[in-house]
């Protein structure tokens, strides 16, 4: 899933305000610009915001939303300058402070983001998006007591704010210190879904929390009910199997992976930011650095399951060409916005590898093969896609114990034993196999341990 500048606020996270009607000419153009922007037609929106500023120089709403658009185009310095200019004109505009905070947050400037959200709340005490964002950045800064207080204030002030209930549910589960906290997360997820039935991630969260408490039958019932209402939805079908309510498939269904990551694309980097210890790309890059020649831009590299492109800056120094492939079109768009790749492709991984024999010197796959139970087909395809002497590097989640086994966990991801991993990599034709262990990330407040696998296709070494 290996999925550095954090880019692109989704429209769902942007605060919008209707244009002021003082001058009908520019107001009509501004309205058209905002509609184009909300429809993701950024070219049209940028042109129209420019027209507004020609009609009325320094119009604050045009400056504000043009700033949001610049950030969406990975021009965050310009975005900050534009929004700051708009705030000199309308200094008590809570939406602008909130959106400026979003930009700082997504660029990793957490203290600046916190200050913006607090300023938004000073200007608009009922700006619940800003309060929710404040709680989030406090959590990211590892200030859980402050974050809990902010989430609690949010739910006291806005108990019908569905997203707030969902975020509180995640917080309670991630930082649970006792059974009561998990119980409270269940109540929050139930309320979030009741308030907003479109938030299917609340149902997924509910099922996971129930399973965490050992209430397996209730968790399976959540997924069965969901599947009965939406029989073609791959998420409840997969999660029902993950909780033992159906036969374990050999790999996650393509529709499940695509659905999860397309819906997750806008907030993917933000969620990884929340898990500050996410390390899979760095761990793999460090392992590869011990076996690859000097980083002189001479290798053809495939980022297999590139996600939003978190591996790109780590791989680029080695790469003559750097290709990213991912099943999720939403993730590919984020990787394209980040930059660093020579080519980005939406494709199923095994089929892509099979279609590119002897094309690469390096294939790296950070947290992608955790959606494969049976690794044999994809590893055989990776072997074929490498040139002689080429290297494969990937991560898996640890399944404790001995024996040639894999299992689908309640998270919806697969875990593999060391014995299974060793056997399947060697069966695919690789030599010089090394399997280390490292912490890949934290989840629900606990360390997720992973196998860090290096394997070479036999032949002349690249050194």
From TrEMBL:
Q: Where are the TPR repeats?
A: 60-93, 94-127, 200-233
CDD domains of this UniProt entry? AdoMet_MTases (cd02440)
Lineage top rank: taxon: Bacteria
Q: Which Pfam families match?
A: Methyltransf_11 (PF08241), TPR_1 (PF00515), TPR_16 (PF13432)
Which UniProt key words apply to this protein? Answer: TPR repeat
Which intervals hold domain Methyltransferase type? 302-394
Q: Which InterPro entries match?
A: Methyltransf_11, OGT, SAM-dependent_MTases_sf, TPR-like_helical_dom_sf, TPR_rpt
What name appears for this protein in its UniProt entry?
Tetratricopeptide repeat protein
- Protein source organism: Rhodanobacter caeni
């Amino acid at each position: 899933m290996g999925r550095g500048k954090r880019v692109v606020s989704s429209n769902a996270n942007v605060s919008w305000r209707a244009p002021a009607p003082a001058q009908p000419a520019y107001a009509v153009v501004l309205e058209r610009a905002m509609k184009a922007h909300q429809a993701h037609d950024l070219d049209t929106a940028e042109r129209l915001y420019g027209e507004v500023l020609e009609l009325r120089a320094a119009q604050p709403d045009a400056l504000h939303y043009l700033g949001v658009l610049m950030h969406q185009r990975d021009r965050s310095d310009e975005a900050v300058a534009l929004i700051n200019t708009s705030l000199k004109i309308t200094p008590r505009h809570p939406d602008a402070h909130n959106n400026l905070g979003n930009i700082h947050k997504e660029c990793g400037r957490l203290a600046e983001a916190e200050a913006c959200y607090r300023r938004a709340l000073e200007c608009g005490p009922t700006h619940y998006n800003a309060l929710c964002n404040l709680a989030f950045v406090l959590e990211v800064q590892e200030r859980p007591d402050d974050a809990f207080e902010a989430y609690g204030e949010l739910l006291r002030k806005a108990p019908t704010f569905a997203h707030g209930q969902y975020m509180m549910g995640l917080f309670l589960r991630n930082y649970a210190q006792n059974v009561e906290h998990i119980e409270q997360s269940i109540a929050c997820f139930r309320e979030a879904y009741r308030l907003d039935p479109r938030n299917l991630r609340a149902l997924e969260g509910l099922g996971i929390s129930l399973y965490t408490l050992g209430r397996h039958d209730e968790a399976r019932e959540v997924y069965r009910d969901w599947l009965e209402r939406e029989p073609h939805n791959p998420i409840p079908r997969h999660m029902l199997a993950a909780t033992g309510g159906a036969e374990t498939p050999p790999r996650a269904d393509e529709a499940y992976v695509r659905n999860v990551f397309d819906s997750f694309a806008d907030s993917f980097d933000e969620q990884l930011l929340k898990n500050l210890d996410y390390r899979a790309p760095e761990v793999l890059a460090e392992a590869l650095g011990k076996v690859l020649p000097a980083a002189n831009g001479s290798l053809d590299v495939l980022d297999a399951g590139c996600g939003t492109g978190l591996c790109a800056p780590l791989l680029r120094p080695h790469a003559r060409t750097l290709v990213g492939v991912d099943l999720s079109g939403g993730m590919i768009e984020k990787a394209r916005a980040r930059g660093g790749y020579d080519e980005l492709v939406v494709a199923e991984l095994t089929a892509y590898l099979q279609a590119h024999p002897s094309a690469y010197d390096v294939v790296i796959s950070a947290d992608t093969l955790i959606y494969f139970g049976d690794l044999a087909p994809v590893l055989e395809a990776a072997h074929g896609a490498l040139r002689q002497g080429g290297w494969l590097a990937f991560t898996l989640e640890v399944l404790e114990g001995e024996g040639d086994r894999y299992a689908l966990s309640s998270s919806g991801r697969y875990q593999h034993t060391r014995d299974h991993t060793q056997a399947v990599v060697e069966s695919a034709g690789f030599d010089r196999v090394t399997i280390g262990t490292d912490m890949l990330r934290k989840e629900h407040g606990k360390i997720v341990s992973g196998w860090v696998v290096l394997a070479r296709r036999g032949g002349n070494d690249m050194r």
